[in-house]
# Entry
Amino acid sequence: METLINVQSHLKYEETGRFSAMADGLSGSEILKIASEIRAMAAQGHKMCNLTVGDFSPTEFRIPLFLEEAIHRHYQNGQTNYPPFEGVTELRSAIRKFYIDRFQLDYPEKSIIVCGGARPIIYSLFRTVVSRGDKVVFPTPSWNNHYYTHMVGANGIPIQCRAENAFLPTRDLLKDHVKDARLITLNSPLNPTGTAFTREALEGICDLVLEENRSREGKQRPLYLLFDQIYWMLTFGKTTHFNPVSLRPELAPYVIFVDGISKAFAATGVRVGWSVGPDDIIQRMSAMLTHVGAWAPRAEQMGAADLLMQPAVIEDYHKTMKTGLETRLDLLHKGISDLERLGFPVMSIVPMGAIYLTARFNLIGKKNPNGGIFTTNEEIRKYLLNEAQFGVVHFQAFGYEGDTGWFRLSVGAVSIKDIEAALPRVKAALEKIK
Ligand SMILES: Cc1ncc(COP(=O)(O)O)c(C=O)c1O
# Structure
């Protein structure tokens, strides 16, 4: 018998410099760290209200049955080989039709690529247009821009947004930073706030990008706009989703859309995302991704194509899904507003879209029951977690500076009962604070 090598005993990392400078400087996801802390508490038998992960629990939000059955069928029909590197024709033509129907935007199919979710799209766009040292402007709070910026060695310029603008960037906030910038990244509805651009606010930024590109007169490399609209199908109440190209068609050479089924169809684990944009950029992104192999599996692509071609199925699904999300968000918003009315230093912003509520637990400087004073958001987060089993994520995890008491509450993985049970616990925890 051959001797078994105990590899573990050889895995001793004594040398330094085992990683590239990029990997060395890349910190892990703060949100995932918080989520694993909560999983550990749940494993000890604590009844949690886990509002931390930007994901869905399949027991609360399942993917459309139509999609599930279509994917099964495509596997049964042998759709298991490599997909074409730009995505299967069926899905690219379904996306084309979808953008015509929903946005009246007719892009050619060579302007569309499909990937294993939205992340590879974002990464490949950064890689395709941003060189080392280029200036990338991104608002905060926002999702993961600081990581992508780091990975390509860009000069990231975070722009801190304000509560009075629903934490969204404005033309005024951005205007002093576009000179020499290579890329601006926007997301609406926004992760982490669940707020969305108004037409006027987005038009203001579109005009700024147009003016900047005109002023470069082809002598300077252009300024691009990454427009992440992964949550666009999830808007509530009177909120309407706007996009830069419908508002300003002249922007088309500079706008790259990030989109997919992950959030709109509670399909985060199915891994189908896409990008629509100027075909020269899209083709380069696609060529780069060929070497990474971050394709969506073929059967999933075919299933997504079938779904996008069924407006009635989508409408039906969204009726139920959006009611489920809105009920949870409204319950939290109402619960926090009730606490505010009772005089507690808390508030939240009316939910507009996505799966998030923005809430403020303004406890900095207040005395906690252990005799200490809250000085950081992290202390507030831990207090809410330990005292009320209420798991939330502070805005610093989204690049937002300062201990200002703002948090993201994500509702895709909690039940209505979880929220109803948690609100009295939060009240009791707040009552102990002086
Ligand atoms: C704004 C935003 N863009 C992109 C993504 C990534 O989506 P995917 O799971 O399809 O990679 C997320 C995921 O949380 C997100 O919040």
